[in-house]
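Duplicate of earlier report; DEAD/DEAH box helicase family protein input re-posted below.
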Amino acid sequence: MSFGDIISHIFHEDTPHAQGSKFEKLVKKIVQIARDLPHTFDEVYLWSEFNGKFQLKQGDFGIDIMAKSGDEWVAIQCKAYQKDTLELEDLKNFLGCQTLQSSDGTQHFPIVQHYLFHTCKTISKNVQKALLQCQNAQSEPAIAYGFYEISELGIDWGSCKNGDIDSLRTSGKKQLRPHQKEALEKIHSHFIEQGNARGKVIMACGTGKSLLAIRTIDSLVDSGEIALFLAPSLALIDQMIKEFRKESISPSYKLFAVCSDSKVGAEKGSEDLNAQELSLAPTTDPNMLAHAINAIISTGGGGAMRIA
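Output:
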């Protein structure tokens, strides 16, 4: 079974409301198990579950799921539509909601990021602009996961037996092939045993350089240290971000995307991505980067990886 098969099964439900409810349950499961998302979640609630537990004093603003990562909350909207393009009018007021409050006023739930999960193949330019403009001093730009993005979230869709969403599992991480293991051993020897400060690994196309880079970072970058990965295009940056989230075996890490040229991908006819199309919002703000990285180091958190 593929992700497309699961979506087709959802659209066999009798009413749009039933389809939407089934898709929300699917997204809740995805958020609980996916390794490729910017956050790892401790608690995930459908809106009815969240509102029932915390008794909010305002409406849901189109929020279908609330997910907690540490002390931070992410709001998630789910859209199950049988059309190709998601439009801005489909989102209601979802992107404008920045905080929630319990009915007695004792609990506040600041929203640090918005996720949008939908079944369309593309999103309109107005939706792209709205996602980027959702950012403020307390939150990151919103991220959209459409049909293709969801299908690549490192989930074993075949584990969904007879439409049972609860049976979904993540796919296993890739194992190094013999030549990659040999290369990793030589990298360790070159830097750790021989104490060299610089080195070069040369491998042919299709031999697994990206996975080797991830395993090298996993094994050489200690807690609180930084790895800098340089790429010549935004498309390659986006590919590496997704691969690192999917394949890293590090217990914890923080990713930062730094785009050195705001015009990259913006020229007419360019085949590169636009900065706003990255799966991780890029920044060139040195104060933000310094503050975030210092916070990781001071708390003894996992390694930070800057992808530029």
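The chain has two domains: 3-170, 221-307.

Merging into the original ticket.
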